[in-house]
Amino acid sequence: MSDVQRSAYRQPVTPSGLESIEKGTLTWLDEDMYNNLNTGVLEQYLEEKNLQDSFEISHWDTKKVLIGIAIGAVFSGVTAYTGLKIGLAVSAAWYVAYLLGMALQWSPSEVNIATSATTGASNASIGFIFTFPAIFLLAYSDKYMVGDGHLITSVDTLQLAFIGIIASMFAGFLGVMYFIIFRRVWLVEDPLPMPGFEATLKMLDIASDVSTGAVQAARDSLKTVGLWTVLTMGFMFLIDYPLMWGKKIAGIPSSLADWLAMALSGEEWGVASIFTERWLHQPSKLVDGHAQFNGITPYESGNIFSYTFLGVELSPTLLAIGWFMKFRVAFLVNLGSLVAWFYLVPLVILMDVPVYDPALGQYVPITEYGDLTSLPVYPIVQWKAFSSIVKTIAIGAILGGGIYGLLKMAPTFVNIFSDISSAFSGEKGDEYIEDRGWYEWPLDHIPIFMGIAFLAMILIFWLGGFPVLPAIVFAIVLLSTTFLLGAIAVRVMGETGIEPVSGTSFIVLLILLLVFLNLPMGLTKEESVLMALVGTTVFGSAISMSGTVVGDYKNSLYIGNRPYHISKGNIMGVVPGAVLGAGVAIFLSMLLASGKIDLLAPQANAFAAFTIILAEGQGDWYALGLGFLLGAFAEWATGMGTSFGLGMYLPTPITFPMLIGGAARDWWEKRRLLPKVEEIRLSEGSAASEKSRALMLLFSFMVAAGMLTGEAFFGVEAAILAVSDELEIEQEYLPDSWTEDTYLDEMLGAEDDDFTHVLGYAISRIASDIDDGKEPSCEILPDSVICTETMSIKSWWPQARFAGFLLVNLALGALIYVLFKAAGIIGIQEESEDESEVMDAELAD
After folding, report:
1. Rg of the chain's alpha carbons, rounded to an integer?
2. Alpha helix (H) ranges present in 270-427?
3. How far apart are CA 649 and CA 630, in angstroms?
4. For 39-97, how does the pLDDT look when each residue is reduced to its tens digit (9 = 90+)?
5. Nearest C-alpha neighbor of 172 from the set 103, 121, 104
6. Residue 417: pLDDT band by 50, 70, 90 thresholds?
7. 92-145, pLDDT tens digit by residue?
């Protein structure tokens, strides 16, 4: 007798479930289904049931799918902002699309199909968030100088955007198509657990109930998203918008909150000592009424605050992400930050570790930067230690955690090849049902599309200006790594709930750089780097789509949807999501590299540093190796080494709010949510209590979604305004009106209208331009001075800027109102008091 096949994932089937399966009475979303998830028996039963009955359940509605795509495309911009801000691609698009479908009384099947298009649109540009910005950093950022210049001397943005976006579309299609192969193996025959999927399945279950207040609760939750978006934008305006324009020009904190903090401060100490430009920070002595260096303490050997930096950014996005993370994950991220700021940074300063100074071309003991009497000068030595050494260690930790996480899956690598064999040679099911239509996308189409994608990649890169040979090599690498590494990444996600996009992308970048830099491909070093980074961007988008479609497949099995519709929804979402998400990511990346906005972009910086090390042999290999070992250890000990490394890369003002958000979530669930759910369970039963729990939790998610959306909208608007501030004009300074026409007097710190201030300014500008080999940007005339200036210096610019800001947001608000009104979210009368009741865990005693 042969042994029964064993599985690491399968759960034992319950007697009641087995009886229902044998009788054929078990159906979608009933109690026996929930009690037998991931048993394998249930999944195979539902697969057979879906083959017969899903054609009555699963219907394609183009209008509803387009609504899902529109939500995903808009939120792809939010994903780009949050991904560049902190390195986590979070947008809450699925929840918003789900709630809209529920408010419009769509069936669970319709919600699942529409949200598959939403996730496809919001994830299609992930590669542009994590990898593509590295190109701009290597081309324009002073942090990545190589000798006297940059590794990349020029960037044709339109050319690279064309290559990246079009190639990412084909790669996204490929990522979806590949995992049609594994659907039966990993979701039916030996189902991956995919931690956390039960929550989304329960929400889809709730969508089937239109008689117990769920519809009105969904409408109220969508109103909550809108309300918290508005509140968040208002809050960000108070703490971030430069309302005091003269102070901004003079380099002084200029928001309304900063003005109030300085008004409540004395000459040396006060509220401004602990609040500066969105940060609550360690106490800092005031100079000219405000904290220097954003509250970071200048170096003094006897001052403990100059050996570290503690702060909390008043960021709704960070609090919301902490809420989604919960306390454990947020703590692991903060653990990396605590190791960096309480151990590594102080240790670097105490040991006076030498750091390489590119301007001097030599190593300098780090505490010498704090000596203001001699060059080089960088008074905030702890930040120098962090940016020059500890960030390198953090990059190593991100690499170590990601790669060791993959190595831990070595048994998976072996199993994958048998899974591939099973997928192609085993029972494939019925792809097309006569007179009824497609149940599943046919496997026969996959090799056809592989051929199309192969030729498309060659053509796209060739049209983008790269030689044919490396384009062919890249196409081969993409098709093979998307399949093999993508399979590994999705299997890891299925077991842990986390898809290692960064870890697998580093491997692809390593492969491409080693091939392009060392083999005769007809590429220069710069072309090799560009092609490798663009190629890695394309790969990142491909495997992100693989993870997305597998998650959607998982839910569809339990509600009676056809996999064909899920594949189709994801594929339709790729194009608009790739265009809009990539557009926002590229726009923000350009501003990031030029220093006009402050986003941390940890993965992009890690890719940039990794590229320099491979291409130039430059970099601190010891720090990178130490970080690699730390990340690998953290992965071994906690299973979240990449999160630990990410925490090391982020300063405390970024990680502490996540910890606060995670702790608040755990406190709320324990003290507010669970008592209310238990009360409902005792009075109405388990089914009602579970439904109530899901609705209350979803309500809290919508508050977090509004916070994410509000700050992202404000951040993108602020970035656009920052670009408009830099538009160049020709300004004529006249002796009798220069202080009235411009803010030059505030910029120079002039206390009178003596025209010699302008003359001195112009002479200095001319001398600097000549030294740099540029055409003089100022001209001194007998009665005036003419200079090329930016719009920000004009006296009328703050009013015009503010008026534009108001008009854009009024138009945005009006558009959202019209859409909500058309969808029936606003203006619907409740049918009864019972139906209109919105359950809120805050009502618990």
Report:
1. 29
2. 316-339, 345-350, 381-385, 391-407, 410-425
3. 13
4. 889 999 999 999 889 998 888 999 999 999 998 888 888 788 878 876 767 666 887 88
5. 121
6. low
7. 688 788 878 877 888 889 999 999 999 999 888 888 888 999 999 999 988 787
The arithmetic mean of pLDDT across residues 800-810, rounded, is 93
pLDDT at 326 over 90: no
Residue 5: band (very low, low, confident or very high) from pLDDT cuts 50, 70, 90: very low
818 C-beta neighbours (distance < 10 Å), count: 11
Our CA dihedral for 371, 375, 381, 387, rounded to 10 degrees, sits at -170
Matching residue, tokens 């992202």 = 712
- Among 392, 523, 538, 396, smallest CA distance to 453 is for 538
Amino acid at 272: A
Q: Which residue blocks in 560-620 are alpha helix, DSSP H?
A: 563-594, 602-616
* 8-state DSSP, 562: -
Cα→Cα distances 713→84, 397, 710, Å: 14, 32, 5
Q: Phi then psi for 355, rounded to 5 degrees?
A: -125, 150
Angle at 573 between CA 569 and CA 574, to 5 degrees: 125
Which of 567, 341, 588, 310 is closest to 438 using CA atoms?
567
Q: How far apart are CA 730 and CA 732, in angstroms?
A: 7
pTM of the model as a whole:
0.75
Q: Which is nearest to 794 in space by CA: 746, 736, 759, 723?
A: 746
Q: 93-103 and 686-725 are packed helices; what angle lies between their axes, rounded to 10 degrees?
A: 120
In this prediction, residue 391 carries a pLDDT of 82
Q: Distance of CA 448 to CAs 427, 558, 572, 602, Å? A: 21, 30, 19, 38
Distance in angstroms (rounded) separating the CA atoms of residues 314 and 436: 55
Q: How many helices (H) and strands (E) does the chain have?
A: 35, 14
Burial class (CB in 10 A: 0-12, 13-18, 19+), 427: exposed
Residues 6+ apart with CB under 8 A from 603: 83, 87, 129, 130, 131, 398, 502
Q: Is the dihedral of CA 189, 193, 198, 199 positive or negative?
A: negative
Residue 616, C-beta contacts closer than 8 angstroms, at least 6 positions apart: 146, 151
> How far apart, in whole angstroms, are the C-alpha atoms of residue 554 and residue 197?
8
Q: Which residue matches tokens 């053509």?
A: 459
Helix, strand, or coil (residue 308): coil
Q: What is the DSSP string of 764-830?
A: HHHHHHHHTT---SEEE-SS-EEEEEEGGGBTTHHHHHHHHHHHHHHHHHHHHHHHHHHTTSSSPPP
Instruction: State how far the alpha carbon of 728 is from the alpha carbons of 387, 622, 767, 793, in Å.
Output: 32, 45, 20, 10
Pair 33, 27: CB distance under 8 Å: yes
DSSP E strands, 720-808? 728-733, 778-780, 785-790
Q: What is the DSSP string of 171-200?
A: HHHHHHHHTTTTHIIIIIIS----TTHHHH
683 CB contacts (<8 Å, ≥6 apart)?
A: none
Q: 624: helix, coil or strand?
A: helix
Q: Are 152 and 145 in contact, with CB atoms under 8 Å apart?
A: no
Does residue 3 register a pLDDT over 90? no
Q: How far apart are CA 110 and CA 208, in angstroms?
A: 10
Question: Taking Cα atoms as reference points, which of 386, 333, 358 lies closest to residue 646?
Answer: 333
Handedness of CA 668, 669, 673, 675 (dihedral sign): negative
Here the tokens at position 101 are: 């479908």
Contact 84, 128 (CB under 8 A): no
Tokens of 843: 């009502």
**Which positions ≥6 away from 461 have C-beta within 8 Å?**
163, 167, 470, 471, 474, 531
Token pair of 98 as six digits: 């789900």
Residue type present at position 340: A
SS3 at position 287: strand
The overall longest dimension of the chain from CA atoms, in Å, is 106
Distance separating alpha carbons of residues 310 and 308, to the nearest angstrom: 7
The one-letter amino acid at 757? H
Q: 841 pLDDT exceeds 50?
A: no
